[in-house]
Amino acid sequence: MRTIFLAALLVLTTTLIFVPAALAQQDLYDCADFSYQEDAQAVYDQDTSDPYGLDGPPGESYAGEPGVACEELPSSGTSSEPSEAVYATCDDFISAAGSPSQYQAQQYFDFTATPEEQAILDTDGDGFACDGWGTGADTLGTQGGEDGY
């Protein structure tokens, strides 16, 4: 009886550890995560078994061109009309309570912002986004500082 219990516990533990990781890996990317087809293609080319379904839904037949990821996305080099770039500003980072959030701005600055957005979010070049609240530099809200208040 004890052996059966220990075997069942081992199977349950193994399942709880490995299954979520495997499922999360399959959902890491989809076409909505990319602005341009070339960016999606670069991810697809790293693993042409297409675990993310960038070349159509995994396991289903697809009418698109095989080996071309996210065909519906625009190409970064062939835009027919110039588009005006939209950049994040300090005013875009508001907490759920409705107050300015230097933390959110810093997270975006550190992990997502383009070089152009980094220049907008950190006008004084100190590496802190939207930190000069009330000083006229990196403005966000009316109070705070580099410690994120």
* Class by SSE composition: mainly alpha
Helix count equals: 4
| Overall outline | flat
Say how many strands there are: 0
End-to-end span in angstroms? 58 Å
Share of helix, binned? 25-40%
How would you sum up this structure, described in words?
By secondary structure, the protein is mostly helical. It folds into 2 domains: 1-75, no CATH class; 86-149, no CATH class. 35% of the residues lie in helices and 0% in strands. The longest helix has 25 residues, at 2-26. It starts with a helix and ends in a 28-residue tail after the last helix.
Question: What's this, in brief?
Answer:
By secondary structure, this protein is mostly helical. Helix content is 35%, strand content 0%.
Features of the shown structure:
149 residues; single chain; 35% helix; flat; 4 helices; mainly alpha; 2 domains; 0% strand
Task: Please describe the topology of this protein.
Layout: H1 2-26, H2 37-46, H3 102-111, H4 115-121
